[in-house]
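Major facilitator superfamily (MFS) profile domain-containing protein: structure, please.
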Amino acid sequence: MCSENAHLSQSLFQTLYLQKPLWYSKMATQQIRSYSHDDDNKMAEHVSDASLEEAATTRTKRQPPELVRDLSSEERQRLEKALVRRIDFRLLPMIILMYIMNYLDRNNIAAARLAGLQDPPSKGGLGLTSTQYLTALSILFVGYLLMQIPSNLFLNKIGKPALYLPTVMIVWGIISAATAGAQSYGGLIAIRFFLGFVEAAYFSGCLFFLSSWYTRSELGFRTALLFSGSLISGAFSGLISAGITNGLDGAKGLRAWRWLFIIEGVITIFIAFFAYFALPNFPRTTSWLTESERQLAIWRLDEDIGEDDWMDSKQQTFFHGMKLAFQDIKMWILMVILFGFVASGTVTNLFPTVVATLGYSNVISLLLTVPPYVLAVITSFCNAWHADRTGERYFHITLPLYFAITADIIAATTTSIGPRYFAMMLMPAGVYTGYVVALGWISNTLPRPPAKRAAALAAINAVSNCSSIYASYMYPESAGPRYIVAMSVNCIMAFMAICMATLLRFILVRLNKKLDRGEPVKGANAAVEAVPGEASRRGFRFVL
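Here you go.
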């Protein structure tokens, strides 16, 4: 019996510990200890049950592909590190650069406001009222909402992100540049709506793209790298806008706000052409992988979850994935969490306007928007890296929100320049530091099948951005400098996100305990539902 005990412990150790991150190792150690202290009768019963289950499920067990199975442990680690580095090099720089332009083209209207957009037509502006400007800002998110789910399901169906995403980028670059030709309020509204409609494909598509290449222990930091594009664009937007406002206002008879849209739109189109040659597709549809790299890329995702990922377009259905996602309570909780994040961070949609209430010139105000975003990039990277290193999500998501609440309270209760700019420094970092980890938590919690994950990512991203439709109206110029209503709503939304994240953690803890006992868990993945003990033996657990 002692030899059976030792054999079972060694087998469990090899399954759960080898080639797994730190949090897998801790879980394996705890389970080995629990087995090692069972009495002989329980162990005998367990071994007997395990043998029967193994005999019943032999045909359902998945084996590594041949080229992976023949590798030694050292060769596997070396090749996997080389593969991840290669994918990082081909994928991350380009999608980050693309997202920088995506965010710039979406939010440059905030900088255009300080560059003469609202001036009377006689001075080269459109003569917009404050309400009309806020409507132009908000209408983008109506189009953004409508296209999220169809776009992600279409991307999952065709399996060609290297073709789809650059094409979408060219279209939104053209629309963004066309904003410079707007001559009326109605024309601006139409352009902004279609810009949001096309841009909707990108961010949720990239989240799905990343989850199709990286394991759960790698995804958080890569998601932070992707989202750093929006934070970097927030910093660059202030610098670019300051330069254009100061140097090109009136050049060739055009106001600075028109040059802003032309320059950034043309840069977007230029970058999109390079993306065709840089981006990979999915592991099964990327032509420049060797066969051993392809098999390893596919298997490590299978090994991470306990089920294969994207296989071919014939297996991907539009409505089945949406149905699976909508039937899972975890998706709805994640949706509320992400909604709370985005709603508490809507101040960034009009950040130049809020910073301008400090009383400095337009150019200085634009430059003052840079440091808060630089801080947010640093804190987001550090938080996401630590979340991946430890395998912990909940505290990495919720703790930064307390800083966001603190910043909103300071901004709403004082008019002194020093404390207010301190609060503005914390606003982007307080929201986005935890937000990037929450984005990764979606794919960690809803991993399979890929159609479900694609639908969930799109639905959550779409609904979370609904707050941007109404939030702009909370920042009229008359409400400055304290914006009491807006800051109060931001605090409430941040607290709501904390509460819902707490609820989700309790649910996932309960589900993990069921997996520990080998019980079926509906909504975990197909492997768990089909073979209750198999996914548990392979080490699948929800990330907390």
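Notes: The longest helix spans residues 73-114.
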